[in-house]
What does this fold into?
Amino acid sequence: MKITRRELLTRTIVIVLGTGISFKSTRGVEEEKNLVMCIIPDKCIGCGMCVKACKIENKIPVEKPISRTWIEGYEIKIKIPYSESDVKKIVMNTSKNPFLTYKWGDGEHFFVPKLCNQCQKAPCVRVCPVNARFYTAEGIVLVDKNSCIGCKYCVTACPYGATYLHPDQKVTDKCTYCYHRIKRGFSPACVQACPTGARVFGDINNPSSEVSKILREGSVDVLLPEEGTDPKTFYIGLENKFIVEHSIATGEEINE
Amino acid sequence: MYVREYFKKKIGRISLPDNFLFYIWLFVLIVLIEVGAYGIVQIHTKPIMPTQPFESYAGVPWRLLVATYVFFVVSTTGLCIVSSLGEVFGFIRLKPVVRMGLLLALVTILVGLMIIGLEIERPFRAPFAFLAHVNPYSLMFWMIMFYALYMVFLIIEMWFILRDDIIQLSIRSPSSLGRFLYGLISLKFLEPVAGSYRPKYRRKLEHEFAKVLGFITVFVAIIAHSNLGAVFGVTYLPFWHGPLMPIYFILSAIISGAAILMFSSIITFWARGVKIKGKIYDSIQMLRVVLGFALVVDLFFIAWKFVSKFYFPSPVTKEALEIFLYGPLKINFWVFELGIGTLIPILILAIPITGRSVKWNLAASIMTIIGIFVLRYDLVIGGLLGKSISGITYQMYSPHVFEIMAVVGFFALTGLIYTIGIKILPILGTMEEKTGRGE
It folds into this structure.
């Protein structure tokens, strides 16, 4: 079989290109991750290490009552009719821990850590007039701090209250799942700091990861499902449906 | 003018310049503008504002300045609609105040866009951002775009309406600078025949063109304004959410526009010493009809909105309205919005004795303007206070002193631009001649 020089050259080019494309596509499959966070309120003890770790890692003013992640302590006495139940809420978002000084009554009480829900249909991305918010390949919503004009529409639009205006940078800011850390293979700062494992972070496309197991086995909820935001932060075994279904505001906030 | 005569009697021998009150007015306005500028600079240089998220702190993201912005753009839309009634839709009795309405619409849209430009946290970024990278899904983007478009159309429309008179001014102006500038503004050199004579068909053509442009302008104004309503209406906040928000904005725009036009035309006529009678009186009476009608419709709107949200109270909607009915905004709602802003003006305008009196009309229009301003404030702040994701009952907000200073400054700026506009543009002059001669 005789091969002309031209044929040889074409075949070589085709083979090189083909391997290149196939190599690229396999690499793409490998990189396709779907990162989620699971929060297990049962395990949260309200120590506030996640809040401090997040603030230090992301350079948020520690003593100002703003935070990318915060802990809500609830004290609920169920009454019938349900909407007249006695709900009290205490929020920890600085280094000071109000749970230690609060006098807990005899109602049911528990802690719920909260953070940006990384919605797949995020209201903040939709409403931003200048495209300062966008989704990454992992499905994480980020803020482009060089584009944000500070109109605060996203703060108004977020149903979870997870976005805020950074007082020093004068642009909006929110949790990024510590994108700078997870890109390097670390876990987010709050996950690393949690002493009880109430926050679990991982890739849901990997069936052997811890989040996959938890999501398969536990009873999974998201906050405010009626808003249709498709969050990526899941809550496992949330005891009280108050927080999930209504998040109603019949109680008082106590900030001490 | 009564005031000037009074002062002359009091002060006696000291000779005052003829228009010294005018200079005092200008001086006061400029001082107030400086106060406002100080406030704005302070807002942007010192981190005084509550910047917290809802969840964890009592702070609201949209505050007094946003409410003022909404008030201004509502006013501009309303003024445009009311002026178009006279100019485009054949409410001939409104003719004497049409130009004033258009001038006010222009002033309020300029100041309104200035307010929102200075309210955002990064004022210098915004113009470039809106040119470079925009999100077509964002209603806020379309709102700004349509308001900008509306402003352009409004300026062109005004140019066509005023052109003939500006050409006359450019011929009659005593100073050569004035002649040059008026000639430049009106593009007089495009005229085929020099001199004061202009063929009738050209004037008629311009007039027809202005009518068409007026129609387009009011259309764009309503699009922009309903976009603003939708900016609020699409959010999940229970007080704002709903498809009726844009419609409600258009309706309240008519109230705002009619009241402001009534107020400023009466004040302007008094300040310029024009007697309010004849056609001018008729135009004020026409405004009375428009304002009264819009107020009555608005009353039903408010009533059924509250009833429909309170009839089967879900916890969320109930809480959103409790803020108004017996929450932190109860005085604003019952006294200012309903009492001073709606019911008393309706009574004043409806009762013949008060409705036919210009002074009572002025009182009604002032009350309505106050009511509308409080209504805007309540709409913005009240919707955000009811942000009921968490266990918070009501959040608290009271305007910072720098914000109040800024708002005062913006109102003074509106007054200043309007005064200058009245002085240099043929808003009143030709009309005085036209209507004064006939009587």
Summary: Residues 18-54+63-119+133-427 of chain B form one domain. Confidence is low (pLDDT under 50) at residues 51-58, 388-393, 434-439 of chain B. Chain B touches chain A through 42 residues (CB under 8 Å). Chain B is about 75% helix and 0% strand.
